[in-house]
Specification:
- The longest helix has 34 residues.
- The chain contains 17 helices and eleven strands.
- With 475 residues, it is mainly alpha-helical.
- A hairpin with a 4-residue loop joins strand 6 and strand 7.
- The strands form five sheets. It has a three-stranded antiparallel β-sheet, covered by helices on one side. The protein has a two-stranded antiparallel sheet with strand order 1-2. A two-stranded antiparallel ribbon has the order 3-4.
- The chain is globular and about 75 Å long.
- Bound molecules: alpha-D-glucopyranose.
Length: 475
């Protein structure tokens, strides 16, 4: 069984959140996934069935979102979970490459197209870059929920092997066991401040990102040449943690111990190269010189999800960081950046994400590790905070960790991962059928305006308080 999540009995949890509330949350999660479900055929007959993250903002199939969606679908409707992952594999190439985003019926319009890392400026069916490769991990979770179709576990082994072999060959040219990302959004943590120093004006939220894409395009997205020629690439801790967990899952699915050995190499490399015993955190390594990116983001804590992590290292990550009120112990969820970092921003941040707010996939990865290491009260405190967030604001893309405000996209698919952290309850009623939710651009703009206004108001308030404090000192 994979180390990342796995269904859990949650002792002590029932007391805090009643079975009725859990049943309602599960019901709502199911409705979100059902409303975001898309299916159809391309003109050439290729079928697709997947969950889009949140229309209208996110209409396509994103690699790691799909893995998260499939994991949650496996609670409600294993056939859909299987279809979601099969569709992802179908979106890949014969050489094992699987794209970050697949557009299916809905190729991006002229305004959005230049922002995607595609081969050409218009008309591609998918991007030419990767996203955190956790497919085998999700495949195993869904296979475990597929008693109705036991053949699922083995049906894509060739494709999965090819995928993980492609990653090793193309993304680990120095052979150190750690794979590299060549664009910041390949980790899924697009605008994380840890990448500012590496990508600079080519960061995901800067205009230079388009040049970064163009540069890769000119080299045909040949990652070995890109890594060889440029300094802007990162051996990312979170990417490698989910890669190692996936290699372990592939070893179990295939019975091939070679993948266990590869996972062990990645885990050892994380320990030997990324662990900083002085600061008690794991750092990404940038460029050919492997310079550590010393900015504390939740990715620095993500090795906690590795069952092989030595206990004393886990204890340091948990006690010195995850549970420290100056760093990651926030009222709501787990912040994506340590609250102590100067770059930490709790709220709305002009189209930049991953610079502070709490996301549900973070809790999904870290809470089971807290439980495993015996910190059950803290684990349940975090889950109870996440429950409050969803009850108050619905399944939003992310939330302000300090005041619990719901932010960005609504009915956001992977926020339903909360279901994985809750005890299983009876279902309120079987309700898979839900008319496709399309969302509205007007509502999106309205929501963004409200978020911007509330952030401006807060900052004005902070500014006024600081001015008052300065005045009081002068008096
Ligand atoms: C944002 C997130 C990324 C996610 C995508 C679709 O870009 O940063 O991780 O895959 O949205 O939900």
């Amino acid at each position: 069984m994979s180390g990342a999540s796995r269904r859990n009995d949650t002792p002590g949890f029932a007391a805090a959140v009643s079975e009725d509330r859990v049943a309602r949350l599960r019901h709502e999660a199911h409705r979100v996934l059902a409303g975001n479900w898309r299916e159809g055929h391309l003109a050439d007959g290729v079928a697709y069935r997947y969950t889009c993250p949140s229309p209208p903002r996110y209409r396509h199939q994103w690699y790691w979102d799909s893995c998260f969606h499939a994991i949650v679908w496996s609670h409600f409707d294993p056939p859909r979970a299987r279809e979601e992952l099969r569709t992802l594999v179908r979106g890949g190439r014969l050489d094992g490459f699987i794209p970050h985003t697949i557009f299916w019926h809905d190729t991006p319009g002229w305004r959005r197209a230049p922002l995607y890392a595609t081969d050409s400026l218009r008309g591609d069916r998918a991007t030419a870059h990767i996203q955190t490769p956790m497919l085998a991990l999700a495949w195993e979770v869904v296979a475990d929920a597929s008693a109705d179709e036991p053949g699922f576990a083995g049906e894509a082994l060739d494709a999965l092997r090819l995928h993980y072999d492609w990653l090793e060959h193309h993304r680990d040219p120095d052979g150190d066991g750690l794979i590299s990302i060549i664009h910041p959004d390949e980790s899924g943590l697009d605008d994380a401040p840890k990448y500012d120093e590496v990508f600079g004006w080519m960061s995901h939220y800067m205009p230079g990102y388009m040049w970064l894409v163009e540069r890769s395009r000119r080299l045909g997205y040949d990652s070995r040449s890109i890594i060889d020629r440029y300094e802007e690439h990162v051996e990312d801790v979170l990417v490698n943690v989910l890669y190692a967990l996936s290699l372990r899952a592939l070893a179990r699915l295939s019975g091939d111990a070679a993948y266990d050995a590869r996972a062990r190499r990645t885990e050892d490399a994380l320990l030997e190269r990324c662990w900083d015993p002085r600061r008690g955190l794991f750092w990404d390594l940038a460029g050919r010189g492997h310079a550590p990116l010393q900015i504390s983001t939740w990715s620095s804590l993500s090795p906690l999800a590795l069952p092989s992590l030595p206990r004393e290292i886990a204890a340091r990550l948990i006690e010195e960081h995850l549970l420290d009120p100056r760093r990651y112990r926030a009222p709501y969820g787990i912040p994506s950046v340590s609250m102590e970092e100067p770059s930490f921003r709790a709220g709305w941040h002009l189209f930049r994400c991953w610079r502070g707010p709490s996301w549900m996939n973070t809790a999904w990865l870290l809470v089971p590790a807290l439980r495993r290491h015996g910190y059950t009260d803290d684990a349940e405190r975090i889950v109870a905070g996440c429950v409050e967030l969803v009850e108050a604001h619905g399944f939003r893309e992310y939330y302000n960790p300090l005041n619990g405000e719901g932010l960005a996209a609504r009915r956001f698919g992977w926020s339903t991962l909360l279901v994985e952290l809750l005890p299983r309850t009876r279902e309120l009623r079987a309700d898979a059928e839900h008319p496709p939710y399309r969302g509205s651009v007007r509502d999106e703009l309205l929501a963004m305006g409200t978020e911007a206004a509330s952030e401006t108001y807060r900052r004005l308030g902070e500014g006024a308080a600081a001015a008052r404090a300065r005045l009081a000192k002068l008096r």
